[in-house]
């Protein structure tokens, strides 16, 4: 399976595994059904990850021709995709930070933090 065969949602997830490697391992967590708009003004874009994208990712991680080794784990609608540096899942996986999260609760927490920060800035003025 080649990159061009992937759906847009699958590409969005995989691009995050390639952006940078923290301690030789990269973890991206996403929720099937997730859809959110990022950016502002002319730089807005939407990330949408649907069941079709999940199936696409599952196939790509098994058949990929680029030499990268992945592990995917799904619990209900939450999926973790892990780019492995040495082809093995480390014993201490929980010690590695999740690089990117495409999940509704994560977006909500980020929005709440931004609102709190803005409120604190307003009170200081």
Feature tags:
37% helix, 6 strands, two-stranded antiparallel ribbon, 3 helices, alpha+beta, 125 residues
Quick structural gist:
The strands form two sheets. Strands 4-5-1-6 form a four-stranded mixed β-sheet. A two-stranded antiparallel sheet has the order 2-3. It has helices at residues 8-19, 51-63, 104-124, and strands spanning 25-31, 34-38, 45-49, 69-75, 78-84, 100-102.
Count the E strands.
Answer: 6
How much of the sequence lies in strands comes to 25-35%
Order of strands, main sheet, comes to 4-5-1-6
Shape, per Cα inertia axes: globular
Largest sheet descriptor? 4 strands, mixed
- Provide the succession of SSEs: HEEEHEEEH
Q: State the end-to-end distance.
A: 55 Å
Low-pLDDT residue intervals, each spanning 5 or more residues: none
SS-based structural class? alpha+beta
Amount of helix: 25-40%
Instruction: Work out the radius of gyration.
Output: 16 Å
Mean pLDDT: 81
> How many helical elements?
3
